[in-house]
Every structure is written in structure tokens, then in C-alpha cells.
Amino acid sequence: MLDGTLLAYLSALFFGTALGFVCGLIPGLGSRVGLILAIPLCGFWDPYPAAVFLIAMHAVVHTSSSIPTIAFALPTSGADAATVLDGYPLARMGRAGEALGASLSASAIGGVLGAFAFILAVPIARPIVSSFGPPEFLLLSLMGISLISAVSREGMLHGLVVAAIGVLCAMVGLSIRTGEPRLAFGLPGLWDGLDLPALVAGLFIIPEMLTPSRFLDEAAARSAKLTTISEVLKGMVVALRYRAILLRSSLYGIAIGLMPGLGASISVWLSYGYAARTARSEIPFGEGAIAGVVAPEAANNSKEGGAMIPTLFFGIPGSSSMAIMMAALALAGVAVGPRMLGQDIALTYLLGGAVVASNLIAIPLFFVVVPWIVRFSAVRREMIAPFAIVIGVTASLIHEPSLITHAQLLVATALGLVLRWANWPRAPFILGFVVGDLLETSSYQTAVIWGWSAAARPMTIVLAFILVGWVSYLLARRKKSRAVPAEHPDRRGAILPIAFFAIASLAMLDGNPTDRMPVLAISAVGIALAAVILLTPRRHVQQRLDHGSLRHAWLVGAFLMANPLLGLTASSAIFLTLLLHVQRMRTVHIVPAVLLFIGLQLVLLTLVLDIGIERDILGRGVWWMLGR
Amino acid sequence: MIWKICRNLGVTSVLAIAMLHGQQSHAASALDGATVRVIIAHKAGNTTDTMARLFAKALEKHLPETSINVQNLDGNGGTLAMNEIHAAQGSLVTIGFVNSSVVFTQVTQGEAMPYGLKEFHWIGALASSQRVLVVRKDVIDRADPAKLPGKPLVSLAMSASAHNYIDGLLLNSMTNLRLKMVPGFKTDQQNAMLLAGDADAGIGTYENYREFIEAGDLVPILKFGTVGYPDELKTLPTLAEIALPTASGDVISLATQLSDMGRFVVAAPHTTPAQREALVVAFNEVVADPGYLRALKDANFIATPEDSAKVTRFMNDLLGNHAVVAKLRAAIECGQQISDGVVQSCDLAM
User: Fold this and answer.
1) A133 and A279 part of one domain
2) pLDDT tens digit string along A207-238?
3) Is A546 contained in some domain?
4) Does one domain contain both A608 and A518?
5) Which positions in chain B touch A456 (Cβ < 8 Å)?
6) Residue B330 forms contact with A (CB below 8 Å)
7) Could you list the residue range(s) of the whole structural domain that residue A136 is in?
8) Per the CB < 8 Å rule, is A175 touching B195?
């Protein structure tokens, strides 16, 4: 029997949805931090309504996180980064309302389908979860690798080189096989691997903000000021035209969500890559295709329903945020596990219903918030860019404000700017980063535990057939349409990857042989491909970005370097003031805008996230000068 | 509902008044006005994380003038967190919640570590880590410690330096059990693989396996320690009881003690003596706090705290005893060779 009154359930549902919506809106908060913040609030309800509160909160975070992602290119996770690729160009075309409407439809449908999958999985949950192991993960990661071409419109070889850098970056940290540091350059801070939010900020947010969009239409952007609910509605309807993508991406999300340890980003990037390969779109993917928003958003929301299956039925968290959810439920007095398939079946239906209801409640919330936020997106980008850069940097430093994170941000920004300048694809980096680790680990585990007998596993056979069919389809399609991109990548961009691979190889020369081989193999392939690019003359005329578009890069570099010395607050204030001044904003506007922004940043850091004002906010330099 | 909100507001008000009162009456502490940075060497949601957060919440009550700031830093059996705590400088007081794997990592990778455990200040231990070996119900015959080794049992771990990986190697070298240790699986994956039948055995905290044991999917067959286990595991054999006669008594004793102390609270090397003393006093107050104990019980945790003096003595005795460290290393190396199938057994007489 369920406990609590209807009023308790309704208040938990509405309050949870509202809190989750806010957590998604603020870059850096997201689901994990939101759940930790929500735990003390559970005390206001009995256990079951408290569970509804937590589930409702968690279910809508990804719905609202698409708003800053699309409007300001502010993704704070690898999963959100896929939405930026088409969502932000749409916003710069003045179609932010439409893009957000499409994301809302996709999120809601994905979320509801995920919830139904959770409810319907009751009789078949266990065989499904049990049929996936390392051999199946290996095939899934190979599918991910096969999608590199889908996110490499600028050039397949270029995409492979960038993906190889991503795979190498995924290898940074302690080796699971030997326990020894790999590619850590003697820095213990790198033992835990690279920080995805910092990489996303450096590779996507900052270069995007510093360079004019190829798709920018100022007149259209200005029209975004007039974004109305009707435009969002139009976007919602447009998304429904992509029914096949919606369904397929949702299924990807559910399937990957129910496999513990696979990670959220994989389902999103697989969905995006698959849509980019198969969907028909007037606007190419990566330049503002609505399907490029629909696919990742549907997968992003539906995977939570999939992740609930192992978490709640077997007590095995399907994702990192589900691990926190389990602990939060335990603290709220709700026991999860196999009981939910039997004696607590009512709780299962209650929580599935809560996910459906919260996704529906999020729709009017979305309508209330979007018109206000989209108006900001129509402000001249030169005015928005400084704030967006600071938000991106803040979000990436929130969880680990160490010198190593600063350094990662700096290196990722340099790499992102070079790739942007040379017109090389950047999305394959994230694909390589999220898939590379899985590929290496699952191939090793498959070899050790099963060897060739893995090929006899039923699900392995099914996936192998799908993989072979998929690759054949890709090859056939590639032969048919050898489209020439409008802008060719600059082959001189290959110099940086070659240097990258060479440094990685040198760093591993005296490393453990077990760990050295994969690094040397990836580096050798990367160098060979980059050399081919460098040595192949281009017949077409280069239409590269003008160099002046990166003229403020030095200011961003100075900001990133000053950050650990002066701290986030001071360096943000100085950076904002200088860049807004350079952008010719009037001083009377700069001062209140910067003060308001810094005030909000401080409130977020100190009151909401409880980050100490010592070193982390004021900076090591200031602290040293104060003699502490 | 309205009554519940009123009740909670009432409780909150009472707590606030109590805290204000506490602020007026609590003894001056070296931590007054300071920020205590709490680093949890486990991912959010893990048993030690939940326990540490309950401790931190109670600590706030006992140190009302101190700001408590909690963060998670998991990975490589706690070494990432220990490294961060070791590097802590300035006026921040940095403490960490780590488990006994930091000891194993120090022993196996000592030279490569940028810190030594002796440099830290041990504030106490929260609870036993209730370490157990479990097997799937359909492999129980093969896993009977009394029987000779048959086909090795596949057991999964996070990495080659993870606590359960080292535990598995020790079982290989000191008992008749034969485990094939495979790294690279997150805790959740380990459990999923066990349930799916792709792995045979698992080593970890009882709390991690409790649901599956209660559901009849997994069977506990061995416990590493002697305290902190629920009553239903009272009759389970211990590591000491099934160890081979040739196994080192020192290493068995070490593994048992590490499981019994389990979850340590450690302070950064730069912590001043006054701050250290204040932390020890606060620790002793918190572990005796009825509210904290009730919260632990509500979350199904069993508290078996150990004080600073005992933990410090244990660490100093262990790390200063080169003979024991050498025996432990030899046992781990032997266990690895057995896991790899290179040898069937080793002669560990030293």
C-alpha cells in the first residue's frame, strides 16, 4: 500500500519538477548536484511522496538543460554537447523558439517513453539486463566508432584524427589493468582522467563564442526578440515529423540507460550520429538541422527511464546520478530492489507515473521560461559571449576547481580554437572520448573472461549482425553520395594533432608495456592519418574563417591563466569588464551588468554549492598575498 | 500534509534554537571560524559516502562556528583523495573519509606514491567495512572453502589497485580458493555481471550485497573481519579460519584488522596540533551522538568506531614493520600469479 495523502504526492510532484527544472537551467548544477541538494528536503514528506519528489526532480533536469544549451551554446556535459551542434546554429538564425520547441517535444516524448519502458519492463527486466556484458559493450563501442563519419562533415580523415585525440585523452589516468598512471605526465591530479565539462567548455563553448557563426543572420537573430509561444509550438509540431528518429533515439536511450556503467553520453552521441547518417534534412547536420536537436534530446531523457530499471529493480545504479538517487531513496526510507517487482509493485507504478507526470508538467514551465531566455539570446553575440564564456568556465570548475582543471581548460581551449580556425570537426573528439574508454576496457575484459567463446553469446550474435549491416549500409551510402563540403578544412591544422600524438608516444616510452601498446597504436594511426592530410594538396579554394574573428582569444587566455591566481570572482569581473569594454559597451551599462553577474555567481558558489570562499573563489594568488 | 509541514518547520525551529544555544555555550575550538574541507574518497551514493555525509552533518552540529564543505573524489582505491588531502595547504582544514584500500595501495605502490601514510593524522575510524566474499548461488559447491580448487571463480574489480582486487589476490595466496581477478568493472557493473551469471564471485562490503543476499541470488561464504557484521553472518567462517597453515599470520591479522577498522577519517599533514586535537574531540563527540547513531541505524549501517589513538598506533606499527610489508607484498604477488594461471600455489614461508 502507498502511504501519504494525495496532497502530499501532488506537492512532492510539483515541487520536485520545479526544482529539477531550475537545476537544469543553471549550467554546472544538473542532476547529480541537484539530487544532493534535494536530499535534505525529503524530510518534508513521508517516504513514498519523498521518492516521487526525487524522481520528478531527476526526470526533468535534461528537459530544461536544453534551454541554455540551445540559446547560449552552454552545454555542461558531453551529452548536452550533441545538442549544441545544431541547436545553437538554429538559435543564431533566429529560430531559437523553434529549436527549443523541438527539444521540448523530443524530451517529453523521450521521457514518457522511458517511463513506459520502466513500467512495462517488470516481467522482462532481468533477462534484458543480464544479456548485456563486455562482449556486447565492445560491439556497441564499435558502432560508436563507425559513427565518426556522421559527425565529420568537414572530412572523414579529419574526423578520424580528431576522434583519435579523443580516444587518447580517454586513456589519461590510472590504468585499470596495471593500476599505474598513464599519460599523466607525473601529475597526480590527472590520475582520475580528464574532466569532461572542462573539455566541452574549451572545445565547444569558448571557440563558438569567439568566432562569428557561419550561419549568423543578424536580422533573423533580432527577430528572436519576438519569439512567442507560437514559435515554440511550431517547433514542437516540427519535431513530430521526425517520428522515426524520435522513436529510435528513445529506444537507444532506454537500451543504453539500462546497461550499468555505459554512461549517458554514449546513447546521445549514438542517436545523433545515427540520425545524421539517416535523416533527410534541408539544412545539413551541424548547421542547424532540427533532427540534430530531436535525436540527442529524445535519447537524453529516455535513458533515465532505462536507467531506472536496474537501479530500482535490482539495486544496481544504471548511471552515476542513479547511484545518488539510490542513496537518497535509502535516506528517505524507501527500499529499492527486487521487492519492486513483487510486493512493492505499486511503488513501481507510482514512480513510473511520476516520471510521466513530471515530463508533462515541465511543458507549461518551459513555455513560461523560454520567451524570456530567448530574448537574451537575441542580444548581440559580442555582448552575450563574455558572460557565456564565464558561465562555461565556472560550470567546468565547479566540481573540481584545481590547477589541473584550469590547465585542462586552457589546453582544450587552445585545441578547440585551432580546430575551429582550421575548420576541422570537433564533435568526433567527444565521440572518441566517450567511446574510446569503453572500447579498450570491454575488449580486454572480453578477451580475459570469454575469449572467442564470446561470439556464441546470443546478444553478441544479434549485435554483430546489426553492426555488419550498419557498416555495409554506411559504405554503400558513402559510395553513392560523395558530397563536397562548402568549406574545406585547412590541412595545416594537422600539425597540432601530429604534435599531440608525438608527445603522447614519447610520454609512454618508459611506461608499463601493457599500458604502452594501446597508446602507441592509436598515436601511430593518428600520425599516419594526419600526415596523409598534411601531404595531400587541396584542389578547392580555402574559405577559412578570417583571422580577425579570433582577435579576443588572447583575452580569454589571460582570463584562464589569471583564474587560479586571482580566483573566479576577481578574474571574471576583470575579464567581463575588459571584453565588454572592447566590444564597445557603454561603461554605465558595464558596471551594473558585471556587478549583477558577479553577485549571482557568488550566490551560486557560496550559498547553493557551498564552495569555500578561500582559495577556490578568491584564488591562490590572493590567498598567498594575504599570507594565509 | 499541512500538519507535516508545520511539524517539520517546528522541528527545524527547535533545531535552530538548539544550534543557537549551542553556539552560545560550546567550548572554544581551534576550528572556530575555519572551513573544514571534507573529501570523500568514494563516489556519491556509495555506502561510505552516505556514512560520511551523515557524519559531516553531525559534525556541523558539534562545530557550530565552523563551515563544513563536502566533496567527492573517488578513484584508484582512495589514492586520488589521499593525494588531494596530502597536497592541502593554507588555512583550510582538510579531512578525508577513506577505506582500508589506501593501506594496500601504499604497500603495493609505495615508491610511486607522492605521499606516505605516516605523514597523515588519523582522527579515527567510523565503522567496519564488513568485507565479505559472495558467490552466485549456483556455484556454491565450487566455492566451498573446504574443497580443493577446481575451475577458478571469475571475480571482478574496479582496477588492479582496488581493495577487492587485492583481497582476491590474498585469498588466492592464503586459502584453497582460486579466483580469477578481472579489473575494469565499476561496482554497479560487477553486481550486474554477478546477477547475469557472467561472474562467479564478488568481494566487497556486506552492505553492497545485502539486497542480493536477501533475495537469494548471492551466498556469502567468507568474511574478512570479525566485527560490524549483522547477526545472520555470525556463523560465517573468517579468513583466519580457512587460511592455509602456510599462510602468514601477520598478513591474516592485517587483513582482518583492516576490515574491522574499515572506514578511516584522516586529516591532512599540514593540520596544526590544536586543530588535530579539536578534530579528535569532535570525532569522539559525533560517534557518541544519539542523533548520528539513529541516522546510521535508519540507513541500515552498523557503527563500530575506533578512536584516534588506536588507529594511529595500528598504522605506525604496520608501516614501520618492514617484515610484515614484505610478507604482504609477497602474498599479493603470489595471488596475482595464481590469478593469471602462471602457478597453482606459492611457497610463502619467510
Assistant:
1) yes
2) 877 776 544 445 445 555 555 678 888 888 98
3) no
4) no
5) none
6) no
7) 6-535
8) no
Of A36, A192, A613, the CB nearest to B80: A192
- What gap in Å lies between CA B223 and CA A450, rounded to an integer? 29
* Residue A3 touches partner B, C-beta closer than 8 Å: no
Rounded Cα gap, residues A612 and A553, in angstroms: 30
Number of domains in chain A: 2
Measured between beta carbons, which residues in chain A are less than 8 angstroms from residue B199? Answer: 449
Residue A83 shares a structural domain with residue A138: yes
State the ipTM, two decimals: 0.75
A497 and A575 part of one domain: no
- DSSP calls for A506-533: HHHTTS-HHHHHHHHHHHHHHHHHHHHH
CB contact under 8 A, A44 and B5: yes
- The residues near B123 (Cβ < 8 Å, ≥ 6 apart) are B95, B265, B266, B267, B276, B279, B280, B283, B308, B311
Instruction: Please state the CATH superfamily assignment of the domain spanning residues B131-257+324-340 in this structure.
Output: Periplasmic binding protein-like II (3.40.190.10)
Which one-letter amino acid corresponds to residue A57? M
The CATH fold of domain B30-128+262-304: D-Maltodextrin-Binding Protein; domain 2 (3.40.190)
pLDDT digits (tens, 9 = 90+) for A538-549: 655 455 555 555
Given CB atoms, is B185 within the 8 Å cutoff of chain A?
yes
Contact at CB, A338 and B215, closer than 8 angstroms:
yes
Cross-chain residue pair A129–B192, CB shorter than 8 Å? yes
Asked whether residue A317 falls in the same domain as residue A355, the answer is: yes
Q: Tell me whether B197 touches chain A (CB under 8 Å).
A: yes
Chains A and B form CB pairs within 8 A to the count of: 161
The residue count for chain A: 628
Kindly give the residue spans of alpha helices, DSSP state H, lying in B215-307. 239-242, 249-261, 273-287, 290-298
Residues of chain B with CATH 3.40.190.150: 30-128+262-304
**Given B8, B75, B198, which is nearest A43 (Cβ)?**
B8
